[in-house]
Amino acid sequence: MSVASEPSAAAPATSPAKRSLPPVIRITDAAADQLREILAAAEPGTALRVGIENGGCAGMSYKMDFTTQIAPFDSVVEDKGVKVVVDTKAVLFLLGTEMDFKTDKVSSQFVFNNPNQTSSCGCGESVAITPVDTGAESGQG
């Protein structure tokens, strides 16, 4: 009869390889220039908070506010001299998004080029976004 031996205390535990995730948000030069200009007029320590909210004909819309508060699980992106705080609840919806600033003949606006966006409404005010599957629920890390 054979008895299985217990692993020795010296044997290192193996963990699954972690999958690297893209940055939450990348900021283009045009967006950074506009944000620097806007934030220069705000009180010191102010950052842009980006999130999503339910609403609109496509289901969700991007939300931008100024903040001086950073919650414990918010993601902070500091790039090109600007600070962007991504709301905790929005991280999986915005992962890999590029934030840009576009100007044309009739408007100027921040634009989110989001690989997780599946559709948008005709007016461009609301979007449908699928959260990123990080593999955490399926046991992959």
UniProtKB/TrEMBL annotation:
Gene3D superfamilies: HesB-like domain (2.60.300.12)
Domain of life the protein comes from: Bacteria
Domain Core: 25-125
InterPro entries in the cross-refs: ATAP, ATAP_core_dom, Fe-S_cluster_asmbl/transfer, HesB-like_dom_sf
SUPFAM superfamilies listed in its UniProt record: HesB-like domain (SSF89360)
Lineage: Bacteria, Pseudomonadati, Pseudomonadota, Alphaproteobacteria, Hyphomicrobiales
Entry protein name: Iron-sulfur cluster assembly accessory protein
Naturally occurring in which organism (per UniProt): Xanthobacter oligotrophicus
UniProt record similarity statement: Belongs to the HesB/IscA family.
Pfam families associated with the record: Fe-S_biosyn
